[in-house]
Amino acid sequence: MFWEKKLAQWVDEVRTQSNLPARLVLWDGQKHDFGQFTEPQVTLKVKTASAMRLLLDPSLDNLGEAYVKGKIDIEGKLSDVINIGYSLARSTVKNNTSKLARVARYFNHSKASDKKAIQYHYDVSNEFYKLWLDENMVYSCAYFENGDEDLATAQLKKIDHILRKIELQPGQRLLDIGCGWGALMLRAAQKFGAQCVGVTLSQNQFDLATERVKAAGLSDRIEVRLQDYRDLDGQFDRITSVGMFEHVGRKNLPAYFRKIHDLLAEDGVAMNHGITSSDADSGETALGGGEFIDRYVFPDGELPHIALVLEAMQRGGIEAIDIESLRRHYARTLDLWTEKFEAKADQAKKLVDDEKFRIWRVYLAGCSYAFEHDDVSIYQVVCRRAGRSATTLPWSRRYMYDTPL
């Protein structure tokens, strides 16, 4: 068969150039080692000949598809599996640069399509997310002040870090765009005395957030809405957007920030916390990772480079006044999520089908690798309406750390 000759050639190239501690086992018992003098740490078991088309063109998208569709099984420590996957994908770049180039893609991002995309990702089931998130169900990058915090502590520190950054005061009106299951609003109302409005497009998030607000006795201070941010009106003293703007679309960013501008009080402060591309042209995540995520995890997601974010802010009438990278923090967050997901694998398989389980397994671990190696990044940007006097800015960042709770 044609693929047999191509397979032998490919394995020989990988063995010579990369010497990977991995073994390929075909459905008929054939074995091929990718390492010359190393014991395999990872074994890829090919279950069907239909997998060869994907395996012989091993972008992250193709490798991911072969795994989630059950065409291959993988044995080995998950972090080793991801390392091998990236190494195999990199081995194809020289021969397939056009396919793997970082090309910016643009999606429609109508209200209907955005709602459908959000519900696809977030409405898996609340029980599924509870398995591997912290007790407050915070689904965004945590903040490790010292590096040794457990997940729940780091997530609470992240929320407090955000609320300190925007200098939230008792009685102020806070808008949380993409409020998730309500953790930030609950903290803002309980510890900072704020009046909160949160919006989400996920029915599951809306239902549980509403339930949690009621259980906390905070229905008079927190309002949860199943609503598109574009339909909001009114004025808010503070605005937070955490892990949401990745769904906005690159072309829509100026309008998104203009909406924040219009919703923000004249002396208000906002903070945008979101994942960014590490490609200066805001292109797709390298090696086919972006294609896999768009198809199986985050439909219609688009990652802008931080430079494009700042430009879009200015075009939307917003001034950035503080910028912080949390890339290291997200790599650690994803490591902890992955550990919990692996530990709860048997329970997860009872909540979702095999394909969905495989998607989330490689997605979480793969994202950890991506943040660790600067394939993607993440920034918190504190901002306000442009054109205000410089005398209203603090002299230093000390207020972010010294404010007692």
From TrEMBL:
<keyword id="KW-0808">Transferase</keyword>
<dbReference type="GO" id="GO:0032259">
    <property type="term" value="P:methylation"/>
</dbReference>
<keyword id="KW-0489">Methyltransferase</keyword>
<dbReference type="InterPro" id="IPR057206">
    <property type="entry name" value="DUF7884"/>
</dbReference>
<dbReference type="InterPro" id="IPR050723">
    <property type="entry name" value="CFA/CMAS"/>
</dbReference>
<keyword id="KW-0443">Lipid metabolism</keyword>
<protein>
    <submittedName>
        <fullName>Ubiquinone biosynthesis O-methyltransferase, mitochondrial</fullName>
        <ecNumber>2.1.1.222</ecNumber>
    </submittedName>
</protein>
<keyword id="KW-0949">S-adenosyl-L-methionine</keyword>
<feature type="domain" description="DUF7884">
    <location>
        <begin position="16"/>
        <end position="96"/>
    </location>
</feature>
<comment type="similarity">
    <text>Belongs to the CFA/CMAS family.</text>
</comment>
<feature type="active site">
    <location>
        <position position="367"/>
    </location>
</feature>
<dbReference type="InterPro" id="IPR003333">
    <property type="entry name" value="CMAS"/>
</dbReference>
<dbReference type="Pfam" id="PF25371">
    <property type="entry name" value="DUF7884"/>
</dbReference>
<dbReference type="Pfam" id="PF02353">
    <property type="entry name" value="CMAS"/>
</dbReference>
<dbReference type="GO" id="GO:0008610">
    <property type="term" value="P:lipid biosynthetic process"/>
</dbReference>
<dbReference type="GO" id="GO:0102208">
    <property type="term" value="F:2-polyprenyl-6-hydroxyphenol methylase activity"/>
</dbReference>
<dbReference type="InterPro" id="IPR029063">
    <property type="entry name" value="SAM-dependent_MTases_sf"/>
</dbReference>
<keyword id="KW-0830">Ubiquinone</keyword>
